[in-house]
Amino acid sequence: MTRKITLIPGDGIGPEITEAAKQVCQQAAVKGRLNIDFEAHYAGGAAIDRIGIPLPEATLTACMQSDAVLLGAVGGPAWDAVEPQLRPEKAILGLRKALGLYANLRPIRVYPSLVEHSPLKPEVVAGVDMVIVRELNGGIYYGERLEGTIVNGIEEARDTECYSDSEISRIVSMACKVARQRRGQITSVDKANVLATSRLWRRTAEKTAQRFADISLQHLYVDNCAMQLVLAPNQFDVIVTSNLFGDILSDEAAVLTGSIGMLPSASIGDGPGLYEPIHGSAPDIAGKGIANPLGTILSAAMLFRHSLDAVAIADCIEAAVARVLEDGYRTADLYKKGLTQVSTEEMGRLVTERL
Ligand code: NAD
Questions:
Q1: How far, in Å, from the CA of 282 to the mean position of ligand 1?
Q2: Residue of 4, 31, 129, 141 marked active site
Q3: For 22-37, what is each residue's pLDDT tens digit?
């Protein structure tokens, strides 16, 4: 059976980093005896230029009919002036909605060879290896909103957070399954001392985790979690939290690594998943062949793990990335004297060689 991957290079550095990742995937699949087939499609600015909209029907259909989607990045100054509903970023929101992606997974790993890039002391970040599981489809970002209302001469605005127990149970189950492939520890983050939605979150998390006897669950208030991520980030295995808290905490945690080009992500639902690096299209370095493709390559590893059930291939790609770094190869963003600077393409080739 051939597994179908829709490839969306996107804009800026997108085509360069996805090409490098594609080479790695193809070689990893050969080694792992898995048949994969890439089909490239336009989205974002590249689609606006050609078809007039950020998420063409053909792209959406291809994504829905594939096993998974690998995306580079979309957007850039060339499309800053387009109408808000036609902005390149609408392609990602449209895909999330159409594919029903309710879980966002962000692994945060500090590689021993990159420890000095962190803004924190090496002894604090050494060995950090966690995954943040963020609920992506509900909460305050999707709740009822009130804007531009004047009450007794005073302007008011309102955002509403709403969660059902089934939404919470679904995301906590996902976190438990992720933890099972790791160290089996979940930290559920909420603000249950203040918010009603958080109290429901905590009760439901308890109930859901009982179905996973091998998982240990602890609860943390979001303010404490924000502190702990800086004080002792090593304590975390899997963090599961709401859309709003996850948005903020995952960016805080990403900074611990000090290297935006290295960080992968996965957005998962019941159908095809969407895999992309966390960075944007980096228009300042686009076309120069110097972008770091490792975040995209590690996103591809997640694709093998979560959408193709090919855990051994995922492990192999991740190990190859770690080895390239240990061997002293760096793209320009992480280069330091004494190491070997390589291009985007060379970095892809070096990972491929080490699979
Ligand atoms: P950015 O992440 O593109 O770039 C921030 C800085 O990090 C830049 O200096 C860039 O050169 C550097 N950088 C990013 N990725 C890199 C890589 N792989 N290798 C080396 N250096 C890298 O963020 P931005 O400049 O705020 O946004 C640029 C465009 O990307 C905007 O149009 C924004 O809307 C879009 N964007 C898209 C996504 C997405 O597609 N998911 C996410 C964020 C931003």
A1: 4
A2: 141
A3: 999 999 999 999 999 9
* DSSP three-state, residue 101: coil
Confidence band (pLDDT; 50, 70, 90) for 99? very high
- Distance (Å) of CA 167 to CA 214, 218, 249: 22, 19, 20
Ligand 1 atom 24: residue of nearest CA: 280
Distance CA(15)–CA(21), nearest Å, equals: 10
* Cross-strand bridge partners of residue 156: 149
Taking only the tens place, the pLDDT of each residue in 163-173 is 999 999 999 99
Helices (H), 69-190: 90-98, 122-125, 165-180
Partners of residue 149 on adjacent β-strands: 156
Q: Alpha-carbon distance 7 to 9, whole Å?
A: 6
Residue 86's CB is within 10 A of a number of other CB atoms, namely 13
Contact 301, 273 (CB under 8 A): no
CB contact at 8 A, 42 and 76: no
Q: What is d(CA 54, CA 66) in angstroms, rounded to the nearest whole number? A: 19
C-beta separation of 299 from 72 below 8 A: no
Q: For this structure, is 337 an active site residue? A: no
344-353 vs 311-326: helix axis angle to the nearest 10?
A: 120
In the chain, ranges of CATH 3.40.718.10 domains: 1-105+260-355, 119-257
119-257, what's its fold? Isopropylmalate Dehydrogenase (3.40.718)
Please answer whether residues 148 and 184 qualify as being in contact, where contact means their C-beta atoms are separated by less than 8 angstroms: no
Instruction: Please list every protein residue whose CB sits less than 6 Å from any atom of ligand 1.
Output: 13, 17, 73-76, 89, 92, 260-261, 276, 279-285, 291-292, 295, 333
Looking at domain 1-105+260-355, its CATH architecture is 3-Layer(aba) Sandwich (3.40)
